[in-house]
Specification:
The protein is globular, with a radius of gyration of 19 Å. It has 9 helices and 6 strands. It is of the alpha+beta class. The chain starts with 5 loop residues before the first strand and ends in a 10-residue tail after the last helix. Strand 2 and strand 3 form a beta hairpin. It folds into 2 domains: 153 residues, Jelly Rolls (Sandwich); 115 residues, Arc Repressor Mutant, subunit A (Orthogonal Bundle), CATH 1.10.10.60.
């Protein structure tokens, strides 16, 4: 096992003031007050936080005071969240969901429990027998605990008001039409509201504009196709309604900072790729 495929480290928050992005999944554990910036969308945080990011998301953690940030990083070659989805359903909940906040506020008990698992992982000798299996087991425990907390957080919210129903309708429409339709007016017309009203409601709920959400949905699908299939970039571009692979590559790099070629090289092709042929 390559050591870069799985690691836990503690850094000062100063390290994350500049944009951080690489080919791994990350779980950040920290406590304080400040802002999290994910792909240029800002979120305020206050308290004990666990934050999740996927390969080549752009991350910044900004705080007026220096805080310690524990970071668990793993490459999909070490642990594929799609392959293990039956064991821990974290894909689309903790990672890769453009409609949910990318972090969870934790109480002290859960925060300390996750921190303890981070500590246990640090103590494992990677050269010992079964170390990889033990690491995967600890990782699954952390993901399961966080998925439970995220589900609890979602169930505690009031999801029956009219605004929520309208926003849920927008989400469903994006999922249905994002490949063919990328304009705000298209979705506003279907919802029988003005583009300005829709923008205000979406911004209030998701901290981002409808156009950002549509763009992020296209990028999320692009990453899925690049990582989980063996399709050529020309095939992917065609399926996602781009005029050609060069425009697709330009669009992808604009929103991720890396080319599709670089993303596939560094993130790799998943072991489940043959399931998507």
């Amino acid at each position: 096992m390559k050591s870069t495929f799985f690691s836990v480290q503690k850094s000062d928050s100063e390290y994350y003031k500049n944009i951080f992005s690489d080919s791994c999944y990350h779980i950040f554990l920290f406590e304080g007050i400040g802002k999290i910036v994910i792909d240029f969308t800002e979120y305020d945080f206050n308290g004990k936080i666990v934050l999740f990011s996927s390969p080549f998301q752009n991350i910044q953690i900004l705080s007026d005071h220096s805080i310690g940030v524990e970071t668990l990083s793993f490459h999909s070659d070490f642990y594929c969240i799609e392959f293990h989805k039956k064991e821990v359903a974290c894909n689309g909940l903790l990672f890769n969901n453009i409609y949910l906040f990318p972090y969870i506020g934790l109480n002290k008990e859960v925060f300390d429990e996750i921190s303890e698992y981070f500590l246990k992982i640090k103590k494992i000798d990677l050269h010992e027998d079964f170390s990889e299996s033990i690491l995967q087991s600890y990782l699954q425990l952390i993901l399961a605990i966080c998925s439970k907390e995220k589900n609890k957080m979602l169930s505690d919210k009031d999801l029956v008001n009219d605004d929520f129903k309208e926003l849920k309708s927008f989400q469903n429409l994006v999922e249905k039409h994002f490949i063919a339709e990328k304009t705000l007016s298209f979705y506003a017309d279907l919802l029988n509201i003005t583009p300005n009203t829709l923008s205000k409601k979406i911004k209030s709920r998701f901290n981002k504009t409808p156009s950002q959400i549509i763009q992020e949905r296209v990028i999320l699908e692009s990453k899925k196709q690049i990582h989980l299939t063996r399709k050529s970039f020309k095939e992917i571009a065609l399926e996602l309604n781009f005029s050609d692979e060069f425009y697709f590559s330009k669009y992808f790099k604009k929103h991720t900072g890396v080319s599709p070629t670089h993303f596939r090289k560094e993130a790799g092709i998943s072991i489940v790729a043959d399931l998507y042929k």
